[in-house]
Amino acid sequence: MQRCKRCLLPERVEGADLDASGICRPCREYQPTDHLKAEEIRQACQADLEQTLQATRGTGEYDCLVPLSGGKDSVFLIHKLKNDYGLRVLAHTTDINIGPIAWSNIHRAVEKLDVEHLVYRPSMAFYRKLFRFLLMNQEARGAVHTISYAYGPLFESNALRTAVTLKIPLVLAGYSPGQPLPERMLYEFPRLSISKVDWAPPELRDSGLFDATDLARFWNPANYPEGTEFPRYLAPYHAWPYNQDEIMSKVVELGLIDSKKKASPVYSNYPINWLLMYSDLKNFGYNPYAPEFSSLIREGKASRLHWTFMAPFVDWMIKRKVLMGKEVSIHMDWLGLADDDLVIKRPSRREWPDFVYEDWKQAVSWGSAMQVPG
């Protein structure tokens, strides 16, 4: 399979359209003004973030809650918030499918940073049922998208509930630029998505397999009395200048993670992610994370040299089910699935109801450069 010579985008990605010289359409159409527009948005978000952090400091027992997954971004975020901003940080981990490398990073970082750390371990039976159902009923964008947009909201829901209970005004997530998709959040979850929307995916409710207790695991503001103050949920890396390689180096230099290998998202990600990538490679012919990393390379935020070697190696491990790719077989056995079960059955759906997008557009105040989906 050919890849773009500039950003490594696989030719099979929709819209790649490699030309005779091996350059993809996104690279051909990328203009310096695209960077300027993105920079305008980033600076506006940064101004809001700086004001928010200053106004929040010292208002409660904790200034912010940070979901800690054990990856480089969440680890470095806690360091920056505590040491550069003097915030009182509560680290929060949902203990489901976190691998040994990520746990090693979590334990080391919490000790080095000396922050309070809350761990929540939910029922494994629920997650097994959830993963199995979703992998057998994927939406059109594939396994990573299907699972992430049920799995992610569960982590976020746990963080929101904890923040409300402890009266923490901010949840600050280590999402890198491009995570999650812009249709879900741009720097901040839309306020109405937190204050008015039940996050339980409709496909779970419609299946009849998930009862009220299962669905209640998802965030639902209706469970709280009128007048409850809900936290803002922000992604600081959408606002600060971001460079993946610099953060990987920095967390090792600071001793927060003990090697660059353990700081790599390839090794610190959730183990089930190997199965999700396997499914998407099978159904689409390319790794689902390739467009995200190609975008970072195109914008100068990730190393082309690193991913020139790492991307084919990751795909090789997945297809052969060796080394880290052994997690494909481990999770297929855990879920009782075979290759033929990994199928797409549903069309794509919008993340939020229309009224959320309409309010989101009206609420955006940092200029016409902001492109709100919907």
> What is the subunit arrangement here?
single chain
**Cα Rg:** 20 Å
| CATH superfamily grouping of the domain at 31-134 and 147-262 and 356-363 | HUPs
Q: Which class of the domain at 31-134 and 147-262 and 356-363 in CATH terms? A: Alpha Beta
Helical segment count? 17
Average pLDDT figure: 93
Could you list the spans in which at least 5 consecutive residues all have pLDDT below 50?
A: 366-372
Commentary on this structure:
With 374 residues, the chain is mainly alpha-helical. Helix content is 49%, strand content 7%. It is built from 17 helices and seven strands. The strands form three sheets. It has a three-stranded parallel sheet with strand order 1-2-3, with helices on both faces. Strand 2, helix 4 (100-113) and strand 3 (116-120) form a beta-alpha-beta unit. It starts with 24 loop residues before the first helix and ends in an 11-residue tail after the last helix. Residues 366-372 have low confidence and may be disordered.
Chart the SSEs and their pairings.
Layout: H1 25-29, H2 32-56, E1 64-67, H3 72-84, E2 89-94, H4 100-113, E3 116-120, H5 124-136, E4 138-139, H6 143-165, E5 170-172, H7 191-195, H8 202-207, H9 212-215, E6 232-234, H10 244-253, H11 260-263, H12 265-268, H13 273-284, H14 290-298, H15 304-320, H16 326-335, E7 344-346, H17 354-363
Parallel strand pairs: 1-2, 2-3, 4-7, 5-6
Task: Give keywords.
374 residues; Rossmann fold; 3-stranded parallel sheet; two-stranded parallel sheet; disordered C terminus
